[in-house]
Design a protein that fits this description.
Length: 226
């Protein structure tokens, strides 16, 4: 039986690499750390994006020159802070959170980070809130990180509320490899349905990247509206 190479992607190795890259490329930040800590303190699920992914969102927003950002799924506002900090003067993040308690915690974290003035937290289910945004100025970046069962719906609204060139990012598209299975449950079914939209809907041009970090084996899809 072959012994694993010391360079095989074991959990210990990829966590070490994640810690190294995070320590090298993501500066320590009190407000972001407090946002992460608030999840455990408030009994919320600790499912925020990893720091490297947070910075990726930040950089994508800056690369896109985004002034208006839409986020579906706020949780404790960790990713929201990253996005808000990427905006120029007068920029705006609209973030949607279904759970009132989560929204309350998010608002406190946004205030602590000094970005509450550029973020609007809208409470309610995405399916109910997204139609209320129709007719407003289009969004330049959309980040989808909510209930996976609704990914296809959220992507449809991303296309409706964006413009040609809008960047769309969908989190958690690998699900520890279960995305290749057709009987892995409703969340995986929702991920696969969303990826099918990105493949088949002519409004999108997309790719996806697998990730290995402190959140485990997962990935993100990145698209633009055409």
């Amino acid at each position: 039986m072959a012994h694993p190479s010391p360079h095989d992607p074991t959990a210990e190795r990829w966590n070490d690499v994640d810690a190294y890259l995070t320590g090298t490329l993501v500066a320590p930040d009190e407000a972001l750390s407090a946002s992460i800590a608030s999840l455990a303190d408030e009994g919320m699920p600790e499912i925020e994006v990893a720091p490297l992914t947070g910075k990726l969102l930040h950089l994508l927003a800056r690369i896109a020159g985004a002034r208006r950002v839409l986020e579906v799924g706020t949780l404790g506002a960790y990713s929201t802070i990253w996005l808000a900090r990427a905006l120029p003067a007068g920029g705006r993040v609209v973030t949607i959170e279904a759970e009132p308690h989560n929204a309350e915690v998010a608002r406190r974290n946004l205030a602590r980070a000094g970005v509450a003035d550029r973020v609007e937290v809208r409470e309610g289910r995405g399916a109910d809130v997204l139609p209320t945004l129709a007719g407003d100025e289009p969004f330049d970046l959309v980040f989808i990180d909510a209930d996976k069962e609704s990914n296809a719906l959220y992507l449809d609204w991303a296309a409706r509320l964006g413009r040609p060139g809008t960047v769309v990012v969908v989190d958690n598209v690998v699900r520890s490899g279960h995305v290749v299975e057709t009987d892995a449950g409703a969340q995986v079914d929702g991920v696969r349905a969303g990826l099918a939209v990105l493949r088949d809907d002519p409004r999108f041009e997309a790719t996806a990247l697998q990730t290995l970090d402190r959140k485990g084996w997962d990935g993100v899809a990145i698209a633009i509206l055409v």
